[in-house]
Please model this.
Amino acid sequence: MPGSRRQFLAASAVATSGLAAVHAAGDDTLRVGLIGCGDRGTGAATQALLADRNVKLVAMGDAFDDRLRSSLTTLRNRKDLAGKIDVAADACFVGFDAYREVIRRSDVVLLCTPPHFRPIHFRAAVEAGKHVFAEKPVAVDAPGVRHVLQTVELAKQKRLSVVSGLCLRYDFGFRETVKRIHGGAIGDISTLFANDYRGGRWRKPRTDGQTDMQYHMRNWYNFTWLSGDFNVEQHVHFLDVCAWLMKDEYPVRAVGMGGRVVLNSADYGNIYDHFSVVYEYRGGARLVSNCRQNPGCKNDMSTHAVGSRGRAMLSERTNGLSLHPADGKDWFYDGPANQMYQTEHDELFASIRAGRPINNGEYMTRSTLLAIMGRMAAYTGQQITWEQALASREDLSPARYAWDQAVADPPVAVPGLTRFL
Model:
């Protein structure tokens, strides 16, 4: 078993030599490795294998053997992936070290584990010269964010492609709408609203014989150290849309609140079921962010922008992409639709074949920090600046990664009492 993340981060030097091999002209087989074999990982593997004519899945890794076996069975049963699953028995790796061998055997690595592990896996893949698809978010705390930012620069030096799981940036309708807003369709943006109102969430009750670490890993979404909390793990999508609309300018400060009212039993770990955060930009614009997970309530996942000459709405629902200029005709996107999850991988593999790397690293990391900053503001009840959030010393990692490691259930944050570190 490996040691702690603190040891990994301290020991991992930023390598600067060597370039990844460029696969050109569609002649060579691109070997894909999957790290994290849950539903999202299985979906990402499917999309990667459909993205290129000459690509094979050659290695898989997960903390749990049953998750890996279930994923492999699902992939092997898909007729559209026939001939593309080449995962031998000795290419299936289980445990906290599984990522090492998967990376060694692959050209392209899919990082789909709980977010806590993303900084470690991302660094290992880039240092090994491998192209990366990284699911969102890419960290759960500021030390992880800082580490990922370093790795992003290393990927640039090595000319590696890094594509983010912030999939709305790969949706054709969102792209066209944002392009028009950037072109001045609603004037200068003064206010943004990011909504993520959805129903309840899954949980995995503790079973007899489970160690602390096994229970936390099985129930990962419900613990801040593994998921980052709902505001980070899922709401990051529409927070990132706001960052995109602001041309990747990020706020200077935030104040927020939150708590857990409905999803508050022990099986729901220590994360909140609602957040409300107001972010302020240097020029005075505001981003009002609201999210909640309560069953039986009206759902809404969208971003709204108010500008000096109109307003806009961006949502995945029907007629959810629209512009409403104050002095003109309303516009609704009616162009071609695409499967954004597939497009992410189509563009990733095309970039590798062409030798023109894509690097989504800057925005995927800073939008992750945007979400973490909101969580910090809500957990502490304090105003948090961008600089404070980035420099925070709060490290959510356990003492070490081992199944027998004791991991006490962390307390639920109490605004006004929980300290900012």
Observations:
- Confidence is low (pLDDT under 50) at residues 10-27.
